[in-house]
Write a structure and sequence with these properties.
With about 450 residues, this protein is of the alpha/beta class. It contains 16 helices and 16 strands. The relative contact order is 0.10. Bound molecules: adenosine-5'-triphosphate and magnesium ion.
């Protein structure tokens, strides 16, 4: 069986050495999205990659697929330097990426057309792939006639039909509802174990820690800014795996701890720079987590996976909310344990209006962007500034879309903490009304 071949001496399918990628944000500043990435995938292994949003996972996958070039380092596929896309590499996207006007059969055949496979052989192989992925009978259906899960099956069939040596899956299950995603994931594992799909190695990018533990032989964790491989965790558990087993739970715990631990080197002091990418967390999620944490049975201290379970949040909701709570220092996180700080306890015990005041204080003390906006407002004569001014500053560090996202997170937090106001109509930031009028002076 394929998985038994996983040893460090199995032949490499793909090898990345010192791979770096730089994106230009403004004329003055380049940003290293990936730096010094070394990664080898060997025959017979499934590797899962975890990392925060924006850490460069998709970029790395696109480099491995030959869709974009690396600025530093080298990629070797089957011993040859990779230059552009290669026949033996296929990718499955989160968004399915199907052509709406083509049937299932035609969508699947596309993968082979690009390789110049003759028509009769294309038809036969596409039918086999459609069969293999459980879509028999739907060959002439159009994508819009299919459910999300079935559409993703088409996306997978299109990759499988080429019998790739390397299959890259970028959050392929995350647009699906939980049950559909799990079913498809289990079927992929069964297919892998059977060897029928003839794939040599799979790389899965995921936001879901449990999914990574259930699927992978090895998990790599990417750090952010720049993205580099921060930890590698082998998963030496037999298959099929039971998600409730003690070993799976222990590994999930360990990975939570790794993912929430401060990066060993040059961790930016919490959001000390205005360009820090604030996580997408809304106040109600942060509040719900803090409340849950401070109530019995946790009483202000919990292990993260346990809390996640109780909160009923997915990893990509829980982790940003926990990061946000950590940034404003309402909690501290260490070795996978989350603890309310003194400010966090005070927040928990407070009435709604007081909560806002505590949050506002924590925000000003710990999040540079919020403090910066506030300072600019106080310094301005009219007590207001345009958002373009702040966006322009952020674009020194971030792509325009990311700058907008980060500013909108800061605005959400700042309004809640009543340190500034924002008008969606005019796009202007102002001091809170009572302050401006009363002339506190600050
Ligand atoms: N073409 C581009 N030009 C400039 N910056 C880019 C480009 N593509 C991606 N980036 C930036 O590179 C960083 C990494 O993006 P990437 O999509 O690889 O992250 P990711 O880890 O896949 O995130 P997610 O988990 O949200 O999918 C982001 O800051 C993104 O804004
Ligand atoms: Mg991505």
């Amino acid at each position: 069986m394929a998985e038994n071949m996983t040893t460090s001496t199995a032949p490499a399918v793909i090898e990345l050495r010192g791979v770096g990628k730089i994106f230009r944000t403004t004329s003055q500043s380049d940003r290293a999205v990936l730096e010094g990435v070394d990664l080898t995938l060997r025959e017979g292994e499934i590797v899962a990659m975890l990392g925060k949003s924006g850490s460069g996972k998709s970029t790395l996958l696109r480099i491995m697929a030959g869709l974009v070039g690396a600025d530093r380092g080298e990629v070797h596929f089957r011993g040859q330097r990779l230059a552009g896309t290669a026949d033996g590499i296929a990718m499955v996207f989160q968004s399915f990426a199907l052509f709406p006007w083509l049937t299932v059969q035609q969508n699947v055949e596309l993968g082979l057309e690009a390789q110049g496979v003759p028509r009769a052989e294309r038809e036969r192989r596409a039918e086999a792939a459609i069969d293999m992925i459980g879509l028999a009978g739907f060959n002439s259906a159009l994508p819009r006639e299919l459910s999300g899960g079935m559409r993703q099956r088409v996306g997978i069939a299109r990759a499988l039909v080429t019998e790739p040596d390397l299959l890259l899956m970028d959050e392929a299950f995350s647009a699906l509802d939980v049950l559909t995603g799990e079913t498809l994931r289990d079927e992929m594992l069964a297919l892998w174990a059977s060897g029928r799909a003839n794939i040599r190695s799979i790389l899965i990018v995921s936001h879901n820690i449990e999914e990574a533990v259930m699927m992978a032989d090895r998990i790599v964790i990417l750090s952010s800014d720049p993205g580099r491989i921060r930890a590698e965790v082998p998963v030496a558990l037999p298959r099929p795996r039971n998600r409730d087993s003690a070993q799976v739970r222990a590994l999930v715990d360990e990975i939570y701890a790794l993912m929430t631990a401060p990066a060993e080197t040059r961790l930016p002091a919490p959001a000390r720079e205005i360009g820090y990418r604030l996580p997408d967390a809304d106040i109600s999620q942060m509040e719900a987590i803090l409340d849950l944490l401070c109530e019995a049975p946790f009483n202000c201290r919990a292990d993260l996976p346990h809390l996640a379970d109780e909160a009923g949040l997915t990893d990509d909701e829980l982790l940003p909310a926990c990061e946000a709570l950590q940034l404003v220092q309402l909690v501290s996180i260490e070795a996978g344990d989350i603890t309310a700080t003194d400010a966090g306890r005070a927040y928990y015990a407070a009435e709604p209006q007081q909560r806002k005041a505590i949050f506002g204080r924590q925000l000003l003390a710990n999040v540079a962007l919020a403090a910066h906006v506030r300072r600019e407002l106080v310094a301005s004569e009219a007590g207001e500034i345009g958002e373009e001014q702040v966006l322009e500053e952020l674009e020194q560090f971030l792509k325009p879309a990311e700058a907008e996202r980060v500013l909108s997170v800061a605005i959400g937090w700042g309004r809640y903490g009543e340190i500034f106001e924002y008008s969606y109509n005019s796009g202007r930031l102002t001091l809170p009304e009572d302050e401006g009028a009363a002339g506190h002076g600050v």
